[in-house]
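New to this. Please check this record:
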Amino acid sequence: MPASDESARRALDSLNEAGRRFVESLSSTWSGHSHIDSASILAALTAAIHQDPAHWESMQQRFYGEQLQLWQRLAQGETTAPGEDNDRRFRAPEWRGLPYFDYVRQSYLLNARWLREMAASIPLEGQAKKRLEFFTRQIIDAAAPANFAATNPEVLKLAAESNGESLRRGMELLNEDIKKNRITMSDEAAFEIGRNIAVTPGEVVFENELIQLIQYRPQTVAVFARPLVMVPPCINKYYILDLQPENSFVRFAVENGQTVFMVSWRNVPADLGHFTWDQYLELGVIKAINVAREICGVEQVNTLGFCVGGTLLATALAVLHTKGERPAASATLLTTMLDFSDTGELAVYVDEDYVAQRETLYAEGGVMRGQELALTFASLRANDLIWNYVINSYLKGRKPEAFDLLYWNSDSTNLPGAMYVYYLRNTYLENNLCVPGRLTMCGVPVDLTRADLPVYLMASREDHIVPWRTAWQNTRLLPGDKTFVLAASGHIAGVINPAAKNKRHYWSGDHGAASAEHWLEAAERHPGSWWTHWNSWLESRAGDKVNAPAAPGNPSYPALEPAPGRYVRQRCD
């Protein structure tokens, strides 16, 4: 055997071994979430076959007949008509131009359709049905022939052209990710927090065990009297709102005369695993609001929360209103759930057994690892956020390109176990938060309908984490003056859509519609970013213009260190 062939064989063998370890690592992380009751599924399948054997026999016969046709075409060296043209996994011409790979592709698509039909035909109800269909899709996505070196013509062609060098590089990238215990989605060497990402000038003006509070430097001569306090999601770093200068939401607000304060959540160490939801409210949201008020010398601030940051913000404001305090003149809630009656596909991961297990696990403290949460979210779009990188990085040996949003996506944050399980039980599992008085937080009963203040509600139409119709339900739940806007794209790209680029579009309309569908039917479509619409809304609630402060902080809250601060630099790796 030529040396180059032997080198390629060894590289392929090593890659297969590394791949086996990667799958084991992935499976161990996933196993805590996979609540498939195999016995119940088998029982339901058996009952369905006995009840309507003709249906199942017909489905099987059709499947076998179509597989036989594929075999006959392969034997005759024929290729089939183009299909699944929008499937990016099979873009290479070899998938249709070469009989073997055309057969592999068509057989996979046929098997996938058969599995989906079987799952759809099994008589399960409610969450059991959704869970079966979801994990069936996970199996189908994982089994795609593009995910394996031996059945991906692009991988084999590249390996031959590079004398196995692409496989060797892929093995190195896979080994690096196994050590990290996560998938690398972006060229991480291209970014550095504080150098070319999270660079809007500012100072940390307060910190405690849980947060640092950043006040950004003014970029206008005059600013609005009321500052804006931003509460980002606590399961990722705050700088999703302050990426690079050209797509920084923080910079946009500051350049439009807002004095912005940002909560930077700590990546909690194990000894803070006992921290509770109430402490996130008191030490995080409420403390940030009060510090901003004191520094700016105002009675009220404007507030903004993103995703679970919005849930925390709305809850904190409800607590404060119950106590007779009204520190906020307005609230902006970006892709936020308050009524968790429909949480989309994330619901498949949460049931009583899972929550009870985690409650036992974290009874004495401990942290919920950020990587596990990141993998859960990635599984909702597995082809894009998992298998795409398996193919390009591990099989083709290509390092991911630099992408700031995906760099942030990989920079997850650990959560206190106590806080995490409280959140899961009272939102995703039991939906207690939206029921007035059912929960007590910070010593008072929580009633979201008590937070009577102007609210700007923004959702993303293709959001796979916070379904837009669920976000729209906030218009029915919250009191007071409400403005609802729906942006194009997904959970992150819908939010981070810089006004200067004038991309995508958004819808606005009357919040008094009878349903989300009725709202959308009557809504007006606008080109460009929702940022400008929000900015106009916020300016009318931001007070008079005053001279910009010379520097962040005041004598009671002096600058502690330059933004972005220490907390945001702490990684889960």
Residues 25-34 have pLDDT under 50 and may be disordered. The radius of gyration is 26 Å. The chain has two domains: 3-187, 202-369+414-566.
